[in-house]
Task: inverse folding
């Protein structure tokens, strides 16, 4: 079956630009997570959705970062006024519920020049 | 914030050797998971441990959850080049619904 799909796989943008990263979870998975992974490090939690609502957004680093999941399926992570320090791999994961294992996509590698 | 530490950070061994990697925290976790991640891909779940003292075996991999549910270990017997990758432990945050990841152990098994 189809796994978690993330697009684009790679994104290069200039400092100060706006970017959107898309995550298409496994069908039927109600929980959706965004993580950020820098080179040589483990994934860092950003935000968690249960259905359409953000159940925990405590990991968003500042107000330049925002995520939505309007219909409880596809989610978009939006970054305004990108900075070079935003460069990382952005991982999306979905699960059947809060206590179920995470299924990750292959990530979007964001490079801010 | 609950934090996880992993050791060693890097490990390079020859095919056929045994190894153990560790995941430690000062916090108690309700459950802990181990993932393996290969370059260019997302982490893939290996196992979930829930009960203190629990031991789970997956072929040549043995996972143990500490009695106090603060630490875990992964032991690999007769390592193979296909075991190469980044091994991540993740604990379910008791204060929220998210999973906290450790920094990982990068394992290289040389043929």
Result:
């Amino acid at each position: 079956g189809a796994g978690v799909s993330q697009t684009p796989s790679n994104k290069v943008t200039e400092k100060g630009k706006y970017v959107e990263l898309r995550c298409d979870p496994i069908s039927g998975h109600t929980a959706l997570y965004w993580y950020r992974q820098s080179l040589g490090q483990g994934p860092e939690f950003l935000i968690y959705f249960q259905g359409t609502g953000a159940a925990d957004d405590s990991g968003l680093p500042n107000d330049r970062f925002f995520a939505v999941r309007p219909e409880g399926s596809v989610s978009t992570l939006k970054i305004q006024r990108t900075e070079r320090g935003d460069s990382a791999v952005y991982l999306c994961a979905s699960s059947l519920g809060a206590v179920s294992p995470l299924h990750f996509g292959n990530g979007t590698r964001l490079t801010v020049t | 914030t609950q934090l996880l530490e992993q050791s060693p950070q890097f490990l390079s061994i020859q095919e056929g050797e045994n190894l153990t990697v560790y995941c430690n925290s000062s916090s108690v976790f309700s459950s802990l998971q181990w993932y393996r991640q290969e370059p260019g891909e997302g982490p893939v779940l290996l196992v979930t441990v829930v009960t203190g003292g629990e031991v789970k075996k997956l072929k040549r991999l043995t996972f143990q959850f500490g009695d106090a549910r603060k630490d875990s270990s992964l032991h690999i017997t007769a390592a193979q080049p296909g075991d190469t990758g980044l091994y991540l432990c993740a604990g379910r945050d008791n204060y929220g619904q998210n999973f906290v990841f450790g920094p990982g152990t990068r394992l290289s098994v040389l043929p």
